[in-house]
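Reminder to self: tokens first, then the designed residues, so the page reads top to bottom the way the pipeline ran.
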């Protein structure tokens, strides 16, 4: 078998593997459910909440504020939850990328 034939076979195998991997990633079931508050291990973010029916992502930061991001696709939520460095993922993929608003929260019976 010639060197060129071997290279073609390797290229086809790589292409096939990448197609199969991409299909698997698109069809896999995520362990993350929407409508559930998740406490996360992060120096930056403490809680994550996602509503797929509204495409909203709510993040509570360890520094105190809570922000709601709109028009956030589920893939971004899954990416955040799967990320080992949530603060970096937030800075690269969420911060400044989606409309956001700061939520003013109060304790029950307390006025803002």
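Designed residues (112 positions):
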């Amino acid at each position: 078998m010639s060197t060129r034939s071997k290279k073609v076979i390797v290229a086809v195998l790589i292409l096939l593997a990448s197609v199969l991997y991409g299909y698997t990633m698109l069809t896999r079931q995520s362990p993350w459910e929407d409508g559930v508050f998740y406490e996360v291990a992060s120096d930056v973010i403490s809680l994550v909440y996602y509503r797929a029916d509204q495409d909203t992502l709510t993040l509570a930061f360890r520094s105190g504020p809570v922000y709601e991001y709109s028009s956030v696709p589920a893939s971004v939520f899954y990416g955040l939850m799967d990320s080992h460095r949530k603060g970096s993922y937030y800075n690269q993929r969420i911060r400044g990328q989606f409309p956001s608003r700061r939520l003013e929260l109060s304790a029950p019976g307390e006025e803002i």
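Residues 3-27 form the longest helix (25 residues).
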